[in-house]
Amino acid sequence: MRGFRRLGMKLTKRGTKLGISVTMLAAWAVVAAAQDVAAGQEVVHAASRTEAGITSAAITENADAAAAAPAVPGSFDEVVDRMVEREHLLLAQMRNLRPLVETYVQDLKADADGNPVPVHDQYFLGRLDLSEGPEDVSFLSQSGGRGPLGKLSDLFSLRFQPKGFAQMVVLDTDLYKKNYTFTYVRREFLGEVRCIVMDAQPIADAPPGRFEGRIWVEDQGYNIVRFNGTYSGHPSNGFYLHFDSWRLNLHPGMWLPAYVYSEESDLDSGSGHFHVKAQTRLWGYDLKAAVKSRNEEFTQIVVDSQIKDQSGATADPSPVAAERMWEKQAEDNVVERLQNVGLLAPAGDVDAVLEAVVNNLVISNNLALQSDVHCRVLITAPLESFTIGHTIVVSRGLLDVLPDEAALAMVLAHELSHIVLGHQFDAKLAFNDRMFFPDEQSFRRLDFKRRPADEDAADAKALELLKNSPYKEKLATAGLFLRALQQRAPDLPNLIRPHLGNSFAVGTNTRMEALLSSAPQLDAQRIDQIAALPLGGRIKLDPWSDQVELAKAQPVTLALSREKMPFEITPFFPFLTRLANDRGEKLVSAGSGSK
After folding, report:
1. DSSP readout, 415-466?
2. Those residues with Cβ within 8 angstroms of residue 84's Cβ, 6 or more apart along the chain or in another chain
3. Looking at CB atoms within 10 Å, which of 169, 221, 422, 531 has the fewest?
4. Which of 497, 509, 484, 502 is nearest to 568 (CA)?
5. Is 586 a domain residue?
6. Total number of domains in the chain
7. What is the structure's pLDDT at 130?
8. Same domain? 264 vs 115
9. Do 258 and 330 lie in a common domain?
10. Degrees to nearest 5, angle at CA 270 with 268 and 273
11. What is the pLDDT, as a whole number, of residue 154?
12. What's the number of CA atoms in the CB half-sphere (13 Å) around residue 574?
């Protein structure tokens, strides 16, 4: 990294934008060193949320009720009463919210050393709708799978009974004291939030599907912030998974579902025994408010007849300039639409880190581009990258698993090459009516796949860019990542399968295959050989604003080779914090959660 800093400082003399890499890319290096991603630790940091974002009367009532509630219940029974009341209020509020819900499932089998490794996967993305019971609007064309995971398709696509996936988010739609026995356990901190811990067991004659496990209740508003367990009994057409469900304080008085980790290691089905893990994330809670805020901007416009155009343009653009403006309009239309849907994160610090790497490639290769290149983050888990005009898009999942900055540079060099080579971007999207489609049709209406010939040309150009870049001596790790991807791709088709761009791997063929020759052989037993990280190890997502930032997990030395877990699912352990004031500004957390 020191060598890169020296080169970066030297190159800064040739371009004013490169200096950002010295400070911001250091964060990438710190994250790459933090191998404690097996715990899935996610720290929630400062994020502003405007009061205009709350449009529902039920949501406003939530904050008011929290402020008016008695400070300290007189008994454990009163704590339970308050908890039940708050949970029913949450259910009412959730009926006015339609967050995106993403679930990624991996089926695991023991390898030769007895360690579980993924052998199959499934992926689901939809919008949760609790207005008339648990339903979803799927973004994907779901098809029933074969084998044990085929039975999980209905479970994780949200199309099932109210006692299914929706309960992993809201615990129980019929949560009353008469249905449960609650037992006090202790007080415990989750991050900065002190909680009352209790066990919940259904009464003896309760019907199947009641929650059975442990509940954490924060001790100010008495909202449930975590529940861990399963459901009682056995449904007639399937089975219940164990799960660990987390909520975050996303607005004053509101603790909304954010993460669910599910695992079952001893399930027996008609086709045999299997082990399954799943990560579920929710985001996009404030999307409607964001659209409303833009609509309300019109009411704030002050018309002044004396104002003149200050653009500096003195004549109509030339035909070439007009063509570029038309393509830019198409690019802007798509970027705005993807962000409004909740698939693209708003511009932020992670984009600046990616753009710093792109700038290193541009300056070190003396590239002359007609306009600046921008980067954005696709919030979904499947590994993909693509370009929209002069905007490079990289998925959260891909950023999570890349082992270091050189591997990131490989991804960005490929996409930058499409721009440098002038590969065509379909400007038909400059017609705004082409953006008028339901959110759930986004993957079907938008397609940024390239022709095979364009992909091959971009690979060749990317290799040229990398050989002239600050990353030329570190490309072995990029090749090692491709080798690990090549090995895992047949078993993880849904993680590798893109929804908007080209696939990173097809069968045993990968993008940028020439880098494989410089990569060492994979050695699963070598603790110091990190080919890829687990999912969730690098990027933190704010479920309210959809902002993303780099995780700041503390570096931990691996003790066992099985702790490497490339491309694998791990549990969630977010560091809980409270909102500091009525504006919804978060307290800055001082550290990450403990295992």
Report:
1. HHHHHHTT----GGGGSGGGG-S-GGGHHHH------HHHHHHHHHHHHHHH
2. 175, 176, 177
3. 422
4. 484
5. no
6. 2
7. 75
8. yes
9. no
10. 30
11. 38
12. 25
CB 505 within 8 A of CB 369: no
Rounded Cα–Cα distance for residues 280 and 136 (Å): 14
Give me the residue label for tokens 């888990």.
381
**Cβ(544)–Cβ(507) below 8 Å:** no
341 & 431 share domain: yes
Q: Which of 232, 257, 284 is the last residue of a domain?
A: 284
Do residue 154 and residue 240 come from a single domain? Answer: yes
Give the DSSP per-residue string, 48-114: ---GGG---HHHHHHHHHHHHS-SS-SSHHHHHHHHHHHHHHHHHHHTT---EEEEEEEEEEE-TTS
Q: What burial letters (b/e) apply to 187-218, b meaning 16+ CB within 10 Å?
A: eeebbebebbbbebbbeeebeebbbbbbbbbb
Max CA separation in the chain (angstroms): 81
> What percent of the chain clears pLDDT 70, i.e. is strictly above it?
73
Is the same domain home to 261 and 344?
no
Q: 120, 107 in Cβ contact below 8 A?
A: yes
Tell me, yes or no, whether 593 lies in a domain: no
Instruction: Tell me the two tokens of residue 157.
Output: 């696509």
Q: What is the DSSP string of 529-554?
A: ----PPTTSSEEE-TTT--EEE--PP
Residue 442 belongs to some domain of the structure: yes
CA atoms of 130 and 255, how far apart (whole Å): 16
Kindly state the helix (H) or strand (E) to which residue 573 belongs, with its residue range.
strand 573-575
Q: Which helix (H) or strand (E) holds 21?
A: helix 20-33
Q: Which two tokens stand for residue 513?
A: 């295959």
> What's the confidence (pLDDT) of residue 553?
79
**In this predicted structure, what is the pLDDT of residue 135?**
53
Instruction: Tell me if 384 is assigned to some domain.
Output: yes
The predicted structure's pLDDT at residue 485: 94
Pairing status of strand 254-269 against strand 180-190:
unpaired
Give the C-alpha distances (Å, rounded to integers) separating 243 from 198, 228, 404, 488.
16, 6, 32, 26
User: What is the Cα–Cα distance from 408 to 505, expressed in whole angstroms?
Assistant: 16
Helix (H/G/I), strand (E/B), else coil: 291: helix
Backbone φ and ψ for 118, nearest 5 degrees, come out as -65, 140
Q: Per the structure block, which two tokens stand in for 36? A: 């404690």
Tokens 């996303």 belong to 250
Query: What mean pLDDT is predicted for residues 328-333?
Result: 92
| Other CB atoms within 10 Å distance of the CB of residue 234 | 11
Residue 583 confidence (pLDDT) above 70: no
Which carries the bigger pLDDT value, residue 445 or residue 162? Answer: 445
Same domain flag for 467 and 545: yes
Which is it for the CA torsion 508, 511, 513, 518, positive or negative? negative
Sign for the CA dihedral angle at 482, 477, 43, 347 comes to negative
Predicted TM-score (pTM) of the model is 0.82
67 lies in the same domain as 112: yes
Q: How many beta carbons lie within 10 A of that of residue 82, not counting itself?
A: 17
Domain boundary, last residue among 284, 307, 332? 284
The percentage of the chain sitting over the pLDDT mark of 90, rounded to a whole number, equals: 48
Compute the mean pLDDT over every residue in the chain, rounded to the nearest whole number: 79
Residue pair 283/297 in contact by the 8 Å Cβ criterion = no
Backbone angles phi, psi at 268, to 5 degrees: -120, 125
Residue 265, domain extent? 56-95+98-177+203-209+216-284
Same domain membership, residue 114 and residue 60: yes
What helix, strand, coil percent values describe the chain, rounded to 5? Answer: 35, 25, 40
| Residue with the two structure tokens 């009974």 | 161
Q: What is the pLDDT of residues 508-522, one digit of tens each?
A: 788 899 999 888 999
The CA distance from 15 to 120, in Å, is 47
